[in-house]
Write a structure and sequence with these properties.
The chain is mainly α. Helix content is 79%, strand content 0%. Helix 1 runs antiparallel to helix 3, helix 1 runs antiparallel to helix 5 and helix 4 packs antiparallel against helix 5. The two termini are 26 Å apart.
Length: 144
């Protein structure tokens, strides 16, 4: 029977790298969200844009500043989600590298499944690898 430990270590190392990549994508998503916020705030909060926008025609039927206040909650919510995704994947990557806290990595993998498409693929493969009996044994041998 062949020794599964080298294959498990290689798979855990790859999962570690991909968790760091997904964390980086979450940080990139936060940067995009910030740029989007800056553009929309410039657009919606500038009253000169909305005054007589079409040469003498009345302005919009809504107050742009009030409309933008709804978007602020969108930015806060998705900013927090992306921040938690980045922190969770970074932490999971560190633990995967050390072969510790298997349960936390499984929980993070489950949450990653909500991040379609890359997080879903990473989450499924992480769960598959971490539920292998040989990987459970590897983690248990690291605890002692």
């Amino acid at each position: 029977m062949r020794d599964q430990r080298p294959v498990d270590r290689q798979h855990l190392q790859l999962l570690c790298i991909f968790h760091f990549v997904l964390a980086g994508l979450a940080v990139l998503g936060m940067a995009f969200l910030f740029v989007h916020y800056m553009m929309f705030s410039t657009f919606f909060m500038n009253p000169q844009i909305w005054q007589n926008a079409q040469h003498g025609q009345p302005g919009p039927p809504f107050n742009p500043q009030d409309f933008f206040k709804v978007f602020i909650w969108f930015y806060i919510f998705f900013g927090v989600v992306l921040l938690l995704a980045a922190a969770g994947n970074t932490l999971s990557g560190l633990y995967l590298r050390k072969h510790k806290n298997r349960t936390l990595s499984i929980v993070i993998a489950g949450l990653d499944c909500l991040q379609v498409p890359f997080g879903t693929v990473l989450g499924v493969f992480t769960i598959i690898v971490l539920l292998r009996p040989s990987v459970i044994e590897l983690y248990e041998s690291n605890e002692s």
